[in-house]
């Protein structure tokens, strides 16, 4: 390559998004709401690695699922030949970690997680190859109160975020023996109308017929609507658990709709299943899916313990926040420090650190080009930063042991006579700014 030739710019992997600074306020709002809700219900954070042994997911999710059949990023570690995968979801990993570290030794645990998940799907609105989930797992709780609790956490999160129009659908898929009886009836029904099945459904007719009820193919809707309902095959214990969940939700004023076609197609899912859904995002409207998976811990080699949980699609929720109540772009800092000359620069560094120690967010001007920027161009940057104040340090100020404090935001006073600009002794600078900003907050409260 000749020295004048520019290398072609590189692009990211299809379906895997950069989260740009403009989206940061949205993520921050969501993450702080999530942490608040988790704390409010006594859930502790757990974080597991993004890479796991592939067999964790074939066992922990099931071999006959969309995820394991066609969506996993699996590879052989070139250095030691291990079969590894990027995690497509987090429940299997959380259960593995709990078993491996014996976390349930002293009783049930309430856990939450967040982070990126990977599925090789067709990228489209609300569906990406790297996406993020927030989820909870309530491990060791058998009763319907745990199911109701995690559902109510969802409701509280929507309320905290100011989101509306999100509906709750629930169902019970009973226990394996109940599903076995339903399965026979279901296969009979589907076989009688085999000509109406699409290729996916035909393949699953005998391996995972329940999942056919979950089809998104419009041509099969009549067929699945007329199929035998799993709810009609539940025995008294399963019905009592389902009734227990509904009673709590009703008493707590959480509206829901029973959708008999809501399923999870895996053997170790049981009893409650639920989804939070919005119509505001087009085809990918499921914000959250969850339910009970009592048999999973034992299936993965742990001591049997009941469990339930949910996983939420963060990108879909952020899109809804952006649509319904977008956050204001916040200012980058409270104070922007402008300076000129080598001596002033050292004073500026010290002043900026002093302000940060007082809890203020401070941007210290750094020159982008080789030469020092003029006061005028530095002040333009200060204005654009959203700072409440500029602190100006030049030869005059230095000689007097002072700084010039200039108000940049409407309604924020530089103090003193209430002017927009005044000189302040360097050692009083931090106190003056803090007092001005606190006074400003108090004014806001008076108005509220
Ligand atoms: P879908 O039917 O939409 O494929 P799923 O049943 O595969 O969903 P879960 O495995 O239950 O979804 O994941 C929980 C949530 O994670 C979903 O409700 C959704 O909000 C989100 N989600 C799942 N896959 C993706 C993806 N590829 N991109 C963005 N979000 C996703
Ligand atoms: Mg999916």
Key terms:
448 residues; alpha+beta; BirA Bifunctional Protein, domain 2; Rossmann fold; 2 domains; 8-stranded mixed β-sheet; 5-stranded mixed β-sheet; disordered C terminus; binds adenosine-5'-triphosphate; binds magnesium ion
Can you put this structure into words, describing what you see?
The chain is of the alpha+beta class and 448 residues long. The protein folds into two domains: 21-174 and 234-324, 2-Layer Sandwich (BirA Bifunctional Protein, domain 2); 335-447, Anticodon-binding domain (Rossmann fold), CATH 3.40.50.800. The protein is 38% helix and 20% strand. It is built from 16 helices and 16 strands. The chain has helices at 24-40, 54-60, 66-71, 91-100, 144-161, 176-192, 199-204, 209-212, 221-225, 236-251, 296-299, 314-324, 342-357, 375-384, 395-400, 429-447, and strands at 44-45, 51-53, 74-76, 83-86, 109-118, 130-139, 166-172, 257-258, 270-278, 286-292, 307-313, 335-339, 362-364, 389-393, 402-407, 421-425. The strands form three sheets. An eight-stranded mixed sheet has the order 1-5-6-11-10-9-7-8. Strands 13-12-14-15-16 form a five-stranded mixed sheet, sandwiched between helices. Helix 2 (54-60) packs across helix 4 and helix 5 (144-161) packs parallel to helix 10. The radius of gyration is 29 Å and the shape is elongated. Residues 443-448 have low confidence and may be disordered. The chain binds adenosine-5'-triphosphate and magnesium ion.
């Amino acid at each position: 390559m000749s020295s004048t030739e520019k290398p072609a710019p590189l692009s990211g992997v299809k379906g895997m998004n950069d989260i740009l600074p403009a989206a940061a306020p949205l993520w921050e709002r969501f993450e702080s709401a999530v942490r608040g809700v988790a704390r409010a219900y006594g859930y502790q954070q757990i974080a597991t690695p993004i890479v796991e042994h592939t067999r964790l997911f074939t066992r922990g999710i099931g071999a006959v699922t969309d995820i394991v059949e066609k969506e996993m990023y699996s590879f052989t570690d070139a250095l030691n030949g291990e079969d590894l995968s990027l995690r497509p979801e987090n429940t299997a990993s959380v259960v593995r970690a709990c078993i491996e570290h014996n976390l349930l030794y002293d009783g049930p645990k309430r856990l939450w997680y967040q982070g990126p998940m990977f599925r090789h799907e067709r990228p489209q609105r609300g569906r990406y190859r790297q996406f993020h989930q927030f989820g909870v797992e309530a491990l060791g709780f058998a009763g319907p109160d745990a199911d109701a609790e995690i559902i109510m956490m969802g409701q509280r999160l929507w309320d905290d975020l100011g989101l509306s129009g999100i509906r709750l659908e629930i169902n019970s898929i009973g226990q394996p023996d109940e599903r076995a009886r339903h399965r026979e009836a279901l296969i009979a029904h589907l076989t009688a109308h085999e000509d109406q099945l699409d290729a996916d459904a035909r393949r699953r007719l005998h391996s995972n017929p329940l999942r056919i009820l979950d089809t998104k193919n419009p041509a099969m809707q009549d067929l699945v609507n007329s199929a035998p309902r799993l709810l009609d095959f539940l025995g008294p214990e399963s019905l009592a658990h389902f009734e227990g969940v509904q009673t709590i939700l009703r008493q707590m004023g959480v509206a829901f709709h029973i959708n008999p076609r809501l399923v999870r197609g895996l053997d170790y899912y049981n009893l409650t299943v639920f989804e939070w859904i919005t119509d505001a995002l087009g085809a990918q409207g499921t914000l959250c899916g969850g339910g009970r998976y009592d048999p999973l811990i034992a299936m993965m080699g742990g001591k049997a313990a009941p469990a339930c949980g949910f996983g939420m699609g963060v990108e879909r929720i952020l899109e809804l926040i952006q649509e319904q109540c977008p956050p204001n772009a916040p200012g980058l800092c409270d104070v922007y420090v402008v300076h000129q000359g080598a001596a002033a620069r050292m004073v500026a560094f010290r002043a900026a650190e002093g302000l940060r120690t007082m809890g203020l967010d401070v941007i210290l001007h750094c020159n982008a080009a080789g030469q020092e920027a003029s006061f005028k161009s530095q002040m333009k940057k200060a204005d654009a930063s959203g700072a409440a104040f500029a602190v100006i340090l030049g030869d005059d100020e230095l000689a007097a042991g002072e700084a010039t404090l200039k108000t940049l935001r409407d309604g924020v006073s530089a103090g003193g006579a209430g002017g927009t600009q005044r000189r302040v002794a360097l050692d009083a600078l931090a106190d003056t700014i803090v007092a001005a900003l606190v006074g400003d907050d108090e004014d806001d409260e008076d108005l509220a």
